[in-house]
Structure formats: C-alpha cells, structure tokens
C-alpha cells in the first residue's frame, strides 16, 4: 500500500491536526451539543475546502530569461545520497560535451520532523555538506565545472530557491532505484515536471563512487 504522506513531517502534522480537530469538537460539546455540532460542521467544511484547493495541479512556474553569457549552458542538479553516483557523473559529462556548461549541485539538508520543528538543523546540514563536498570533488576530477550549495530539506523548495538565483537551462534529479527511493515514492520527479517550466532529466543511481550516509 502506498503511503498517503510524502514525508514524515506531513504524517506528524496530520496526527496533531486530528487531535486538535477532535479536541475542539469535545470542548464544544461540553458547552452543549449544538455548539459541538457547529464546531464539527465548521471544521469539516474547512477541511473539505483545503483538500479541494490542495488537489488542484500546480502550473509550471514561468522562468525568467537566463541572465548568463551567450553560449553558456547551466544545469541544476538535485541529489541526496546519490550525489556522487557514477551514473550521475556520466550523465553530466555527456551533457557537458561540446558546450560551455556550468553545473550547480544542490544537496538538501535532510532532517527528522522533530529536529526540523525544533530548528535543530546542524547535523543535517553537516551531513549534506559532506555529501556535497565529495560530489564536487568527483565532478571536478571529471572536468565538470561544478559548484554547490546546501538546499532546503524539501527538494521541491530547494529547486525553487536555486532557480531564482542560478537561472538554469535544465534540471537533473538523481535518485536511488524505485524500490529504495524515498523521493520517487513521494513523486518528486513528477511534481518537478508539473511545477517547473524546465526540461527535467531523471537519473537513477544504483551505487555511489564514494560512501554516502543513509537518510
């Protein structure tokens, strides 16, 4: 069965919303049953409205003309544990052949919901930086002009942030194979294609050229 929640944080938030939903109804009922009924109807209507609004597909975001030199091709890469994978390096090397290519690698700072809510992100950022450093070293050894930065824990938000500052010509998303990819389970690749008006290449990495930490 497919998990209805895309992240642990969403599941954690849902539990608290259910507790709050039921709690308000109980409090209203303690006043009298009509107040309880009114609270139930208002809450239910609000939830239905939110779900209908949430269900609408997001349109691709219009991209401003890339403000970079003519002839320069910019590639935005989003990768986590697969950031130094051989398949990703091969794909980027192929894209760089015969063109003046610049690559920006964004490594999301993965974190648990509890630590995210308590703003304890130091460990997550440290792990992301280590993965990023290994990736950039491997890419530069392959002759790829690459730079990198730590991104938001939400890969879609990390992509959106990078698009604003880097103005890429295309997007590359690197994941594990479907059977062990959290990003594929959450539909990150499909969501990126719907949300961003950029060519999207999905690279599947079966291994890594250097050890990486598991999320």
Question: Any descriptors?
Answer:
Rossmann fold, elongated, 8 helices, 5 strands, 215 residues
Would you mind describing this structure in some detail?
- The protein has 215 residues and is α/β, with parallel strands linked by helices.
- The chain has 2 domains: 9-54, no CATH class; 72-204, 3-Layer(aba) Sandwich (Rossmann fold).
- The protein is built from 8 helices and 5 strands.
- Strands 3-2-1-4-5 form a 5-stranded parallel beta sheet, sandwiched between helices.
- 25% of the residues are buried.
- Mean pLDDT is 77; it is low at 1-7, 112-120 and 209-215.
Give a short summary of the structure.
Helices cover 49% and strands 16% of the residues. The chain is of the alpha/beta class.
* Estimated helix fraction: 40-55%
Return the CATH class of the largest domain: Alpha Beta
What is the CATH superfamily classification of the largest domain?
HUPs
Tally the beta strands: 5
How many domains, in number, for the residues?
Answer: 2
Could you tell me the strand content as a percent range? 15-25%
Q: Helical segment tally?
A: 8
The pLDDT mean sits at: 77
Low-confidence stretches: 1-7, 112-120, 209-215
By CATH, the topology of the largest domain is Rossmann fold
Instruction: Give the overall shape.
Output: elongated
Termini separation comes to 22 Å
Give the H and E element order. Answer: HHEHEHHEHEHHE
| Major sheet summary line | 5 strands, parallel
Query: Rg from C-alpha positions?
Result: 21 Å
CATH-scheme architecture of the largest domain: 3-Layer(aba) Sandwich
